[in-house]
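I had to read the description of the data format several times before I understood it. In essence, backbone conformation is discretised, so a fold becomes a row of integers matching the chain in length. I therefore recommend that a typical entry be quoted early in the introduction. For illustration, here is how one protein appears when written out as sequence plus structure tokens.

***
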Amino acid sequence: MTDEVVRKLRSDARDNRERILDVAREAFAAEGLDVPMREIARRARVGPATLYRRFPTKEALLTAAFAEQMAACIGIVEEGLAAADPWRGFAAAIERLMEVHALDRGFAHALTSQYPQVYDFVEGRERTLRALAELIRRAKETGGLRKDVVIEDVVLALMANEGIRAGSRAARLAASRRFAALMIRSFAADAPAAALPPAVRLAKRGR
């Protein structure tokens, strides 16, 4: 086998991998985690054997597909920790996390559930939650956050945000921002008087 043939095979393999990941990200973001592996292979125009050779399990595929979103979530919470005012850092983190989740149903579900059970993904999720717990502690200490708020309340808010249905990407973002504002207000020790973002007309389930 010549060097040129080897390079071509490697290039084809990279192209297949990137196409699989692109298709997986789009499918999981729009349809959630239940899209079958064979359907991912079909949409990516590769055989099931090619898909399973690169991603032996669905969990492995999810971990690779969501690597960018996971890094973004970790960065968002760590930026919140770096804020001079922990309450403002907490509020900004909640708003931005909800935006990320509103645009990717699959990632939102994976982050707030026990799936997928892959070390890299679980470690990233646990790192995010540990940082969020520390941000909650600091925001309570400075008096901005209600004393009775626990991390499970934030996870519950993220799970509720995951359920937003709207007719367009822009509408989902707008609805998520309003919901985030409602949640942040409910978390505040002294609820601010600022007006909520505009309400958004949402699609009904089943349509």
